[in-house]
Amino acid sequence: MALNVKVPSLRLALMRLIWRIDERLLLIVFAAIVGGGAGLAAVILNRLLFDIHEALKPAHFHWYAFILPACGAGLSALFLGYIMKEGAGHGVPEVIYSVCKRGGLLRLRSSFSRLISSTLTIASGGSAGPEAPVVMSGASIGSNIARAFSLNDRQRTTMVGCGAAGAISAIFNAPIAGIIFSVEVILGEWTPINLIPIGIASVVGTEVSRLLQGNLIPFSHRQFHASLLDILASVGIAVLAGLSSVFFTRLLNGTIRKSHQLVAPDWLRAALGGTCVGLLGLAFPSVLGKGYDVVSTIIENHYQSGLVLVALATLAKIMATSLTIGTGGSGGIFAPCLVIGSLGGLAYQRGLVACWPAVPWAEEGFFAMLGMAGVMSGTLQAPLTGIFLIVEVTGSYQVVLPLILVSFVSATLCHHLQPVSFYYGELVSQGHLLRPRTDARLLSDLNILELIEKDCVVIYEDMRLRDMIPIIEQASRDCFPVENSKTGDFLGLIHLNDLRPYLFNPGLHDAVIMGEMMDVNVPRVSPFDHMKDVLELMDQTHLWSLPVVRRDKFMGMVSKGTILDRYRKELIVQTH
Amino acid sequence: MHLTINQVATLLNLPVSTVQRWIRQGNIPVYRHEGKYLFLEKDLVKWAQAQGIVFASKPQKTAATEQVEDDSLVSAMKRGGIVEGISGDDISAVLKALVDTAPLAPSIDRKELFLRLLEREDLSTTGIGRGVAIPHPRSPLPNAPAEPSITTCFLDNHMDYNAIDDIPVFVLFLMLSPAPRIHLRLLARLSYVLRDKAFIDFLRGTPPEGHILARMAEIETNIDNAHHFPKLLHGS
Amino acid sequence: MKPQLLHIFRNTPFGRETLLESCYFCRTIEVELVAYLPKMSKFLMYFENDVVQVDLDSSFLSSPDTAKEHATSIIRASGLEPLFFDPEDFTASTLPDIPTHFDYMCCPRSIVDLSSKIGLGYIGPRVRRIVQSARFPVYIPNPVFKEWKSLAVLFGGSANAVKALRLAMRLSRLSGYPLKVFTQLEGDSRQDYDRVIKENGLEEAVEDWTIFETGRLKANLYEVPHDALVILGAYGHGLIRQLAFGSKMELIQTVLPNSLLIVGPHCAL
User: Fold this and answer.
1) Is there a contact between A88 and C93 if contact means CB atoms under 8 Å apart?
2) pLDDT tens per residue across span A395-416
3) How many A-C residue pairs are in contact by the CB < 8 A criterion?
4) Contact residues for A318 (Cβ-Cβ < 8 A; gap 6+)
5) Could you list the residue range(s) of the whole structural domain that residue B53 is in?
6) Model confidence over C16-68: pLDDT tens digits?
7) Average pLDDT of the residues in A224-246
8) Are residues A287 and A328 in the same domain?
9) Which of A441, A569, A574 to mutate to test the interface with B (most CBs of B within 10 A)?
10) Which residues of C touch B35 (CB under 8 A)?
11) Predicted pLDDT at B63
12) Does residue A192 have a pLDDT over 50?
């Protein structure tokens, strides 16, 4: 019953065996479990989407079909807001925020809430994809399994990455893309200690998906033959894709902003957005739902419309997605990117054929794929994810060269025009995108209370210069805080440099008091200030140490030297 | 060996809150046992080495923590003893005679000491005025004993020492210390004592050892009561 | 730095009583009171190994324009300096993060409650999760303001109970109020408890120690003074026990209307 600190050494040795030597093994085991869970979530979502879509099919022939997306989006918002009491939001930024700032802690409800809400949104015709919800579910599963076993921040973050990888791998049957996405977008760091568990989770997730859904790739496998001219033309599609991505991101952000300005309950906003989508869907049926069938049709060169209609369809899809997600619908942007990309690629190919009919351009499907890669890489600003995903979902490795070209050109162009991708937008503007071992992260980990130095001799404003002499003899620092002897309030700071010229002038020893010599305008730092701001202040004022004052009481000094020492130690332990 | 979180914090020279944060973030190897955190020294040493972090098994002894048992003037003078009857034509001869006859610890190389004393005189005279000189080596001798000593030496003849006030020197205080800081501390006390004209006159009478030490002790007590000197290490 | 207590202010007459309780607590043990005036109905608290979402009911958001004024005047009248907390970090646009570095937190018996549940017998599940994860003791005040004049520790002998007793000793010293300890023997003998006290050097704390050797706890709790602050440790170890949250805990706060200070398994004291 009592606290027993005498630890039997056998037990400790056993603990050590389990927890230390096998930490990596332990993570692998957990990763498999998490990957399996994420895979299951993906399968469930796919199943739900399919079943409900089938159930709603007859409704499409009626006049009220255009209201379906509105109902779906409205219900989704109601469900999230009132039943799950979860804040609205895209989901993936929340996962990244948690990884950057909160050691990967995610709420348990997120592991299933988004599955339901996105089913409601997408199955009813909303233009969104199932990936972001599954990523959120997988990440939350990983986080909560880590919580159940009391793993530390670093391990929990790895589990979140495993969940995300498992999710993407399962939903696309694309294990490599899952790994790359998790490392490139969610975790933001490539370290050996992460890669193995993530790889395992990815494999298990894919296996679960294959077991339960069969080993299918979403889009058919075709042979494409590209000539040199086609590869040159790829540059064009890259630019087009890049520009489309930028337009898409800006429209999305704009819609979110405008939608928040609308004073209405969440569900009403979502329903309004859904109505607009429904109306768009009347004119362009291809913009509804996740749109994989559209992509398949295009890749198989069966898409019938001409250049103008296809271009308009691309635009319509961009608008539909912005309306769905921007007004509060629940879903991801992967699938819409694929649709936009393939429609855009198709339009481009039609354009090429129209301009230079004599040239034997490659098939529509070829440019569709390049378009998909371009838009994905551009919107996510994650070129590697784009490349691997397209290769894996279409099975067309032989077009990898133009694929790489398009991905990187598009991503670079987008980054140039829109420095922050859709996922990172809010995070960056609030300073929350803190990747490990970056300056921002290190500074946010350090806090003043850990660095404060309390070895200053406090002096009072009524002390004379003569009284300072014995103090200077004994003190180890060269600055002295001055306090009011009655209230203890901090009044100012005296630096040895200020006293030096007068110390050896006995005539002044009784003539000068510290209250006259102190610097009352010395900039003060509060114990809760951010380290970044403290360093900026030091740079601006050219001071190497600053007083930490709280509610007029002096607490200690913070100095650049100590900051450097701790900064380096943080960097070292984080690099482990 | 098990270490607690407070011990680890001290050994890493970090606040406890930083170590707690590292535990939570997974940056340091630790075990949980019944709600308490335990560290194994072996693991920590390996971890520290891999990272290049300084981790001492025992808190490092810095110069500041080195304690000298007793560095009061009186004890130093007791250790050094009193020598009389030294004479010589010039500084070199006097110093040689002093070094040869002074009761020094056996580990001290007298030849080396003589050379170093001369070296110091060359830099600047140690005749600090009022007939007093304080010959000493510029840097501590290699085998200097851990405790400082001051040998008082009365000269037979007052001699021209090139002192700063040109007054002929009648007494030498040979100061040997293990570290410059201790030398400075003793010197500060000695110079305070020597400011007293009455004490100088007292010395001119070549008093016996007992009287000198008693008088010194009295003056030293006054020093300690005033605030002007770094307190004796063993006292504070 | 002085210790701080986090208080979530409800701008209603019920909330006023709770704030008065917190103010008295802070003044008596020399702690600063930091008030959070919620503008959104939810918030998150990130602990070391758990993230707790607290959904406040609408009464917490009532009359936001007068909230600060009301809170300030109550706090000032109690002789404390009003300090307010504004969240800086947000997990989502409607989900502020509340930091967990405080030294105490005041939770009403249920944070999500209708007025009927303010009555006894219901420590909400969120409060329980906070107790289980927090590094600070949780203060659950009496629904109506009453000044407590002594401290009563319900000592069960577990590690958390020892922590609670230590805390109680410290508070007794700070406040100047007497400390009484109560233990219900159930199967363990008096010697076991004596040993625990001895091992932890807490002899000074148990000078006034009432041990119930017979009778049921429910009835024996009548001995706890009506004007005492009751301090106890929540069971911490074992998954099963966690699930049950210790049936004793539920019993105690069903029977006693006193203000409670609960020391959870992760409290750093």
Assistant:
1) yes
2) 778 788 899 999 999 999 999 9
3) 60
4) A244, A247, A248, A251, A336, A340
5) 2-58
6) 999 999 999 999 999 999 999 999 888 999 998 899 988 887 888 888 899 99
7) 88
8) yes
9) A569
10) 159, 236-237, 265-266
11) 47
12) yes
Instruction: Read off the tokens for A83.
Output: 């039943």
- Round to whole Å and give the CA distance between A49 and A126: 12
A559 versus A263: which is more confidently predicted? Answer: A559
- The 10s digit of each residue's pLDDT in C90-107 is 888 888 999 998 999 998
**How long is chain B?**
236
Choose the final residue of a domain: A161, A188, A213: A213
- pLDDT > 90: what percent of chain A? 41
Q: Residue C111: pLDDT above 80?
A: no
CB contacts, 8 Å: A102 with chain C:
46, 51, 91
Contacts of residue A63, defined as CB under 8 A and 6 or more positions apart, other chains included, come to none
C159 touches chain B (CB under 8 A): yes
A1·C89 Cβ contact <8 A = no
- Structural element, H or E, at residue B194: helix B180-194
> In Å, how far is C183's CA from the nearest CA of chain A?
14
Total beta-carbon pairs less than 8 A apart between chain B and chain C: 8
Interchain contact C47–B (C-beta under 8 A): no
Distances (CA, A) of A489 to A455, C4, C128, C133: 18, 20, 41, 37
Q: Does A2 touch chain C (CB under 8 A)?
A: yes
Its pTM stands at: 0.82
Residue of B136, B158, B211, B227 marked catalytic: B136
**Domain-ending residue, one of B12, B27, B58:** B58
Name the CATH topology of C4-140.
Rossmann fold (3.40.50)
Give partners of A (≥3 CB pairs < 8 A): B, C
Buried b (16+ CB within 10 A) or exposed e, A531-564: beebbeebeeeebebbbbbeeeebbbbbbbebbe
Query: What does the pLDDT look like over A32-70, one tens digit per residue?
Result: 999 999 999 999 999 999 898 888 877 777 777 788 888
Domains C4-140 and C150-263 share a fold: yes
CATH assignment, C150-263: 3.40.50.620
pLDDT of A418 over the 70 cut:
yes
pLDDT band for C110, please (50, 70, 90 cuts).
low
Are B176 and B204 in the same domain?
A: yes
Residues A234 and A206 in one domain: no
Structural domain includes residue A1: no
- Provide block-wise average pLDDT over 10 residues at a time, chain B (236 residues): 86 89 88 76 85 69 49 84 84 88 85 89 86 87 85 87 87 88 84 85 86 85 65 39
* Chain C: closest CA distance from residue B15 (Å): 16
Pairing of strands B82-86, B31-33: unpaired
Active site residue B2: no
Angle between helices A334-355 and A292-299 (to 10 degrees): 30
- The two beta strands, B2-3 and B36-40, are antiparallel
Q: Where are the beta strands (DSSP E) in A351-466?
A: 459-460
B230 part of a folded domain = no
C265 interface with B at CB cutoff 8 Å? yes
- Chain A residue with Cα closest to B30: A20
